[in-house]
Design a protein that fits this description.
Low-confidence stretches: none
Number of helices: 16
Shape: globular
Structural class: mainly alpha
Largest sheet: none
Distance between the termini: 62 Å
Strand content: under 5%
Helix content: over 70%
Number of strands: 0
Length: 349
């Protein structure tokens, strides 16, 4: 038993180290002037793609890269839950929670509908819809953990994730500058501006940076609003996983073990949210701030390692055939999120 475990560890070690090296390279690139605003997750996945397509990945790394892209991703998503405290989100009020829920649902459904009309591959439109509606690259990573390739005509999940992360990074960065400028132009109050920024911009980091262009009071509202969107990642991933299980049953794939209603990493995510909420309610989150901050950093690092590993499975010839339509879909999804959330902010608040 021990020798088997040792053999398994050795077979994965080179690939894990390779994925870690890609992550270190991505972080180093962010120190280069002009790259500070580029998502480190995007840089990691681009490095992985580059290494794959120039033939610099040894066969000995395959097992470890596969392990990194799956296991590290799930652990990172679980730790992501420690960012979220339900009491903080409830303090936004039911009006803001309504805006968050309607914006997320509208963006997700309209993006899926438009993607189907545009002929975008199933996995690509699912991941673009999730990333735009919820929390950018982290949401793409979480949803990619439950998606799978249906048949030979379907795009690989890794290629779909690459395209989706590129889309949410590109348009999220654009909105990071545009939305705050429009909020000031429209004369929105600090609370209205914070809610609009938090419900329309994709990445948490982009939300903080965008809100910072207006003021610190806007940053607080925008950040909590954004985390309200992140909470919806778990039920959405659970729903998609459940629907995929049903679809497998309809296709007659019954010989395999039936997947759980809630994937284990989603359960872990919810437990992490519950734990953070209890700590906040009891007033311990301040005392444990360094621990929670460390968990947040570890979550980002693990997801980045997983994205780098995922990039090594992407072949550019495949992704180039569907990339343009997916980028257009990403633009449409971003416009839907921005317009729907602005209208709701003006009507509800």
């Amino acid at each position: 038993m021990f020798s088997f475990m040792l053999h398994t560890f050795r077979s994965r070690l080179y690939g894990i180290l390779y994925a870690v090296a890609l992550t270190m390279g991505a972080y180093l690139i962010t120190f280069i002037p002009g790259f500070q605003l580029v998502s480190v997750l995007l840089l990691a996945i681009v490095l992985g793609i580059l290494m794959r397509n120039v033939g610099l990945i040894p066969d000995s790394c395959s097992a470890g890269l596969t392990y990194s892209s799956k296991t590290f991703l799930r652990v990172g998503v679980v730790l992501l839950g420690l960012r979220l405290a339900i009491p903080d989100i409830l303090e936004l009020g039911w009006g803001v929670l309504f805006i968050i829920a309607v914006t997320v649902l509208s963006t997700y459904l309209v993006t899926l509908w438009c993607g189907r009309l545009m002929g975008v591959a199933h996995n690509s439109r699912m991941l673009i819809a999730t990333g735009t509606a919820i929390c950018g690259a982290s949401a793409v990573a979480g949803m990619s953990a439950v998606l799978e390739k249906k048949d030979d005509s379907e795009e690989d999940v890794e290629s779909s994730a690459t395209t989706a992360i590129a889309c949410v990074t590109l348009f999220g960065t654009f909105l990071m500058f545009l939305i705050p400028a429009l909020a000031v132009q429209f004369g929105l109050s600090s609370e209205q501006a914070g809610v609009w920024i938090g419900t329309s911009i994709h990445e948490v980091g982009q939300v903080v940076a965008g809100a910072g262009f207006i003021g610190t009071d806007v940053v607080a509202t925008a950040t909590v609003t954004k985390l309200g969107r992140v909470v919806l990642l778990a039920p959405l991933v659970a729903y998609v996983g459940y629907r995929q299980g049903q679809e497998k049953a309809r296709r007659g794939v019954s010989s395999q073990k039936r997947p759980p209603l809630l994937p284990l990493f989603v359960v872990g995510f919810l437990v992490a949210v519950f734990l953070r909420s209890v700590l906040t309610y009891m007033g311990f989150d301040g005392v444990l701030s360094s621990v929670l901050r460390g968990a947040e950093v570890l979550s980002t690092v693990l997801i980045t390692v997983a994205m780098g590993a995922m990039g090594t499975n992407v072949h550019l010839r495949k992704i180039m055939t569907t990339g343009l339509s997916a980028v257009v879909l990403g633009a449409v999804a971003s416009v839907v999120a921005a317009v729907v959330s602005l209208v709701l902010v003006l009507v509800v608040m």
